[in-house]
Amino acid sequence: MHGNYYEATKRLEIITEPLAGDLSVDVAIIGGGITGVSAALHLAERGYQVALLEAEHIGWGASGRNGGQALPGFGAAQTKIKSLVGAEASRKLWDMSMEAVDLLHGQIQRFNIPCDPVRGYFHAAIKPRQVRELEETQAELAELGAPVGKLLTGADLRARLDTGKYLAILEDNISGHIHPLNYTLGLGLAAQAAGAKLFSQTRVTKVEPGAVIKLHTARGKISAKFLLVAGGAYLGALMRPIAGYIMPAGTYIMATEPRPDIAALIPGNEAVCDLNFVLNYFRRSPDNRMLFGGRVSYSTLPPPSLGASMLRRAQSVFPQLQDARVEYLWGGNVDITQNRAPHFGRLAPNMLFTQGFSGHGVALTGLAGKVAAEAIAGQAERFDIFTKIPHARFPGGRRFRVPALLLATTYFRLRDML
Ligand SMILES: Cc1cc2nc3c(=O)[nH]c(=O)nc-3n(C[C@H](O)[C@H](O)[C@H](O)COP(=O)(O)OP(=O)(O)OC[C@H]3O[C@@H](n4cnc5c(N)ncnc54)[C@H](O)[C@@H]3O)c2cc1C
Questions:
Q1: Does the C-beta of 231 come closer than 6 Å to ligand 1?
Q2: How far is the CA of 60 from the centre of ligand 1 (A)?
Q3: What is the reported pLDDT for 196?
Q4: 408 lies in some domain
Q5: What's the CATH number where 367 sits?
Q6: Mean pLDDT value across residues 388-410
Q7: Does the beta carbon of 238 lie inside 6 Å of ligand 1?
Q8: DSSP 8-state class, residue 341
Q9: What is the pTM assigned to this prediction?
């Protein structure tokens, strides 16, 4: 069994070096995920001198490991967002999330990024309660003026998705899927071409705020007028004031061996996600493997017998995979907030942060980088709509964050089972 399927099917190489020596720039960015490289691109295109610092390599974090499902909206339902910020701001946030999906597809075209973009998605209901949720989603999308797909059941469902697991699926022609690592690398290359300096193997170990911010790394220092912190679930305690607002959780994906019969399971090549709290999400790869994601570990340690249990989950949807083999198995961390809405803000007037995408960041992170770049350039309106979303810390610091979340998850898991 191998590790990350995306690393094995990488189609772009990006040449980056560790920082060596001191450098002075307009903007420093911590984190080489989609947020960081998107911000670097947009800032460099505006003429700023940019240095992006990545502890490992570009796309090493969640951006190079995820399910590749690119959707509008947020980890929290739109009704929740509305209850948090009111009708007007929630409408603007929704529109920006739709823009995020267009931005993703626009950048892929503009920079010719070989990341196999596909539009087409199914939201799947396992229980009658979830069928009602799909109907509510349909009504909500209609109210928002978004294109609304059909609710498919019975033979119509089976013709589009060859499983008896679901009572209904909702078609969605806005969402879709991509190869997320190739996408991240493609954006990174575009950022470099625009003049941004990207450094790998360069962990920021200390940040000194001030009119000129100082970032310390093992082999050099960066001085910058602005900072964007985009370290996601991997930031740890570097920026203490924001650490307690997110909970890093491990989530996992497996890829089977390629099999021609897998194409017929999802003939239209849509991505699929069910509505359970600890959800299953899956799609097929261009070489006809089943990429199946799910499971959560709040310790961020992989659960025991992960490969076998992931395969069982896939087989519970597609018994046709009974004799399938797991060829790739990997995981990554998501940055969950208490309310599952993204957490953006400022640590100081010249220090911005984005985090808390809560497992819903493939499309939104690209826009996050763009609106952070706008804010640094002096147009903060759009960034500040995000900063209006109220957030609470996980109670009791990191040691107690896990038990609190586990309790909540156990409750929702039970609800999924009933
Ligand atoms: C297994 C998995 C499946 C997912 N599936 C989906 C999906 O299908 N659809 C969806 O919308 N979302 C999904 N997500 C979520 C999505 O991948 C993330 O929301 C998104 O990639 C976050 O991007 P980011 O740029 O904010 O962070 P990341 O991509 O995590 O990048 C942060 C980077 O910061 C670096 N870093 C941290 N601290 C420092 C430091 N001190 N110095 C230097 N560098 C540092 C890290 O090394 C890391 O590379 C999934 C996530 C995972 C893990």
A1: yes
A2: 8
A3: 98
A4: no
A5: 3.50.50.60
A6: 69
A7: yes
A8: S
A9: 0.96
